[in-house]
Design goal:
about 300 residues, 9 helices, about 35% helix, Alpha-Beta Plaits, single chain, alpha/beta, Rossmann fold, 2 domains
Length: about 300
């Protein structure tokens, strides 16, 4: 593995019974970069990140993380990476600083450094005045910052973030990404999964996964030029799973997929498709909260 690469995998595969969750993906992540792994719910993002963290053994393929083999050296990988799971994983009944102290011990941070690392986390996360607060009483955005701080207590060179801003308001998401950018600028490699399209803009490179397969990768601007040929509508509904099923047979809807608690629907023309979607959801008695275009087809300067 090149010293310039934090992660490299070839034909990485994970099978659960008859279900192929990750299907022969290959990718490289340069050191010091923010690498975005984008895809809808159930596409294989979390399964991939768990294999790269040493938490789940691959069914096939090969890979190295920080120079260690994902098949033969998962324990070595665990000790050297930071991992923030999709689900909030801290202890609600502990105070903020108690959570920090607990994870400092879990990550074997030397005792002589723990006070300094605790102070750094509190300052980085903006939680110095909330250090004695119960974690359960924190707003979602503050909880995510605390979880991020605990994940990097041991100063890992590579940080895995699995949908870290899911369920967080837009302002808190923006502040969270500011923290990620500062870490990357200091040399930390960040591998982040997300289903928010706008967060892709913050990454140095992207890989798009769909139904377990890698379908595109490259810089965000290049992927926009090459891949975005249709309008993407964001559809917010009361029952997203029922709505997805209702729209699958709608000709105007094109491809529809769950992204978090919303639907993303690719269409040729926004207005007639929006009208058809509204009609179908009304017929199925599914409440529609909003529908709006979030990605427009790329137009070159010479296009009409």
């Amino acid at each position: 593995m090149s010293d310039e690469l934090a992660v490299t995998v070839r034909d990485l595969t994970r099978v659960f019974g008859d279900f192929v969750a990750v299907d022969h993906i290959s990718l490289e992540v340069p050191r010091g970069s923010i690498f975005g792994f984008l895809g809808p719910n159930g596409s294989g993002k979390s399964t991939t990140i768990r294999m790269l963290c040493g938490l789940l053994l691959p069914s096939g393929g090969s890979g190295r993380v920080l120079g260690f083999d994902v098949l033969r050296e998962p324990e070595a990988i665990k000790r050297r990476v930071g991992y923030m799971s999709q689900k909030f994983s801290l202890y609600d009944d502990l105070r903020v600083e108690e959570n920090i102290d607990f994870f400092a011990g879990l990550y074997n941070v030397p005792r002589a450094k723990r006070a300094a690392r605790r102070a750094w986390v509190l300052e980085m996360a903006g939680l110095a005045d909330k250090r004695r607060a119960l974690t359960r009483d924190l707003a979602a955005g503050w909880k995510q910052r605390l979880a991020l701080g605990c994940a990097v207590l041991h100063e890992p060179p590579l940080l895995f973030l699995d949908e870290p801003t899911s369920g967080v308001d837009p302002l808190s998401r923006r502040r969270f990404w500011d923290l990620i950018a500062r870490m990357a600028s200091a040399g930390t490699t960040v591998f982040v999964t997300t289903h928010y399209m706008e967060e892709a803009e913050y990454c140095d490179a992207l890989a798009l996964i769909y139904r377990g397969r890698l379908i595109a990768e490259g810089a965000p601007a290049r992927l926009k030029r090459e891949a975005v040929t249709r309008t993407v509508l964001e559809v917010r509904v009361e029952r997203p799973y029922a709505a997805l099923e209702a729209l699958e047979s709608l000709p105007q809807a094109g491809d529809a997929a769950l992204f978090g608690d919303t639907l993303h629907v690719s269409v040729d023309e926004a207005e007639p498709a929006s009208a058809a979607i509204r009609e179908r959801l009304a017929a199925e008695d599914i409440r529609l909260d909003s529908i709006e275009p979030i990605v427009h087809p790329w137009r070159t300067p010479s296009s009409p």
